[in-house]
């Protein structure tokens, strides 16, 4: 009857277990049986034939792989019978089954990897949860390239936990070494599958960077991670500024606005927590903003310019514009600057005009000149005193 039919394959009886574990277990069992048969054959040939132990082992192995060199062959009845039954019938059949199972395992593994269901053995890696609504491929590609440009992160593994890419990651992401797991950050089993507890950093992207309600999903994921004492590893995107305190209250390390066109900001917030606040202020006119001043620069070095602006409470010099209209960021501090403009980070509520900046630089020039004159005077007085001492 149909109910008494045996399953076609052993794994059909174990459908509740992972297929990879079943195949690996079966391969191990076959290898164990094969090893026992080989040992038995070597012992029989060594005892029945006029061969050394090494020669018996050599003949057994060449028979197993069907090479057939012909340098050794069993001469006794016992040796020939054992070769027929143990090697030709049993061992070679087992080897064929092992090769078949290994090929099956490779196909199974490849299919699981493509569909995002393979569990990798990872630690000290980066977990990214969710995928941007648009431009996800470009975002992840630029994020990976920027992250791996940071010293110490050149080979860091990156895994994406997402419900997208059901047919596999795009080639440009796979070529960059990214892998993914198909699931949701709200699923504890999915978080376990990506080894969130062993991760170096966990990034939770906003499910929809234009929808404030996506903060609810982000908060649920952040809360689950916080319950596992992983809050200090977590960087989250928050659409509404009013919700930032909620994430901070559950122990999230870094909260940042979604900025899809600049994944570099996310990289900096992960590598150097706190820097995202500086970068966000550059995009926000309400607090601080970079302001351009058209002003001639020709007799001060960069250290003098920075000091002058800070001492007069104007702001922080970020860059200057040279005479070729090139913006030069972070120039050498001891090199005299020649240019026609400054980029300064100033307070939006108290933005100084260009005359205030010119006056600050002028005062600093006077200060520098007085200091140099004082140095010369001190040097001359020291020389005069030394000459007087020599004459006396």
Automatic annotation (TrEMBL):
The keyword Transmembrane helix applies. GO terms for cellular component: plasma membrane. The chain crosses the membrane at residues 30-48, 84-103. GO terms for biological process: monoatomic ion transmembrane transport; potassium ion transport. Its main location: membrane. It is found in: Cell membrane. PANTHER family: POTASSIUM CHANNEL PROTEIN 2-RELATED-RELATED, POTASSIUM CHANNEL PROTEIN YUGO-RELATED. Residues 34-99 form the Potassium channel domain. The keyword Ligase does not apply. Pfam families: Ion_trans_2 (PF07885), TrkA_N (PF02254). Keywords: Ion channel, Ion transport, Membrane, Transmembrane, Transmembrane helix, Transport. The lineage of its organism: Bacteria, Pseudomonadati, Pseudomonadota, Gammaproteobacteria, Pseudomonadales. Residues 172-258 form the RCK N-terminal domain. This is Potassium channel protein. It is a multi-pass membrane protein. It comes from the Bacteria.
């Amino acid at each position: 009857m149909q109910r008494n039919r045996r399953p076609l394959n052993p794994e059909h009886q174990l459908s509740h277990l992972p297929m990879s574990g079943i195949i690996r277990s079966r391969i191990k069992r076959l290898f164990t049986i094969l090893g026992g048969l080989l040992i038995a054959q070597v012992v029989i040939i060594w005892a029945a034939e006029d061969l050394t132990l090494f020669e018996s082992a050599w003949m057994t192995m060449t028979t197993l792989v069907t090479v057939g060199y012909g340098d050794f062959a069993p001469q006794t009845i016992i040796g020939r019978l054992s070769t027929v039954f143990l090697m030709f019938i049993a061992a070679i059949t087992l080897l064929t089954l092992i090769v078949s199972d290994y090929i099956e395992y490779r196909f199974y593994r490849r299919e699981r990897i493509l569909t995002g269901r393979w569990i990798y053995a990872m630690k000290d890696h980066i977990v990214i949860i969710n995928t941007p609504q648009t431009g996800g491929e470009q975002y992840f590609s630029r994020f990976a390239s920027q992250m791996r440009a940071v010293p110490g992160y050149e080979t860091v593994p990156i895994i994406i936990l997402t419900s997208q890419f059901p047919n596999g990651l795009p080639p440009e992401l796979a070529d960059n070494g990214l892998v993914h797991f198909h699931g949701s950050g709200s699923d504890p089993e999915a978080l376990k599958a990506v080894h969130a507890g062993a991760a170096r950093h966990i990034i939770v992207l906003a499910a929809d960077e234009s929808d404030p309600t996506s903060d609810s999903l982000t908060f649920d994921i952040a809360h689950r991670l916080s319950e596992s004492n992983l809050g200090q590893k977590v960087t989250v995107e928050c659409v509404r500024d009013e919700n930032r305190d909620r994430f901070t209250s559950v122990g999230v390390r870094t909260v940042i606005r979604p900025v899809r066109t600049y994944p570099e900001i996310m990289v900096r917030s992960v590598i150097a927590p706190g820097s995202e606040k500086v970068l966000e202020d550059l995009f926000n006119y309400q607090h601080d903003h970079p302001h351009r001043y058209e002003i001639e620069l020709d007799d001060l070095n960069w250290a003098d310019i920075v000091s002058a602006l800070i001492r007069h409470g104007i702001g922080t010099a970020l860059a200057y514009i040279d005479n070729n209209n090139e913006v030069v960021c972070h120039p050498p501090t001891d090199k005299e600057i020649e240019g026609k403009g400054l980029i300064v980070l100033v307070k939006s509520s108290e933005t100084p005009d260009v005359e205030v900046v010119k006056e600050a630089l002028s005062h600093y020039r006077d200060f520098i000149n007085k200091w140099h004159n004082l140095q010369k005077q001190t040097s001359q007085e020291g020389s005069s005193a030394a000459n007087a001492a020599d004459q006396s």
